[in-house]
């Protein structure tokens, strides 16, 4: 994984894990790799992974079972929320980019409709 130097690494790891959950690579209730394993795989400091895991648990995306590790939540509402939040971030980024180019709301919708007809 290549990291964007403008964004804290632990936030990028959180996004990576959420994306894997959304794509079904990590399923609900599935154990996520240990902190040390993930740190080794991504070649980052163990503390960085620990921080990402703590944030995921605080958000309710994962839970920890003492002595067994961390697991993806089994809460369907949370899993759907993760996907919706990621979609909203993409839309927000797209709309902001289009507005920077001078497009208004109607122009943005027109561009999307034209793109979708071709896709």
From TrEMBL:
The keyword Chaperone is annotated on this UniProt entry: no
Top-rank taxon, per record: Bacteria
Keywords for the protein's UniProt record, in alphabetical order: DNA-binding, Transcription, Transcription regulation
Keyword Coiled coil: no
Domain HTH gntR-type, chain residue ranges per copy: 7-75
Pfam families listed in its UniProt record: GntR
PANTHER family, per database record: GNTR-FAMILY TRANSCRIPTIONAL REGULATOR, HTH-TYPE TRANSCRIPTIONAL REPRESSOR YTRA
Name of the protein in question: GntR family transcriptional regulator
């Amino acid at each position: 994984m290549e990291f964007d130097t403008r964004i804290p690494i632990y936030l990028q790891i959180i996004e990576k894990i959420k994306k894997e959950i959304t794509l079904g690579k990590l399923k609900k209730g599935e154990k996520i790799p240990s902190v040390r394993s993930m740190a080794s795989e991504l070649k980052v400091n163990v503390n960085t992974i620990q921080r990402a895991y703590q944030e995921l648990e605080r958000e309710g995306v994962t839970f920890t079972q003492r002595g067994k590790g961390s697991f993806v939540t089994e809460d369907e509402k949370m899993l759907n929320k993760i996907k919706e939040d990621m979609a909203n971030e993409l839309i927000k980024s797209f709309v902001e980019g289009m507005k920077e180019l001078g497009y208004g709301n109607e122009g943005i919708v027109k561009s999307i409709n034209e793109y979708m007809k071709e896709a």
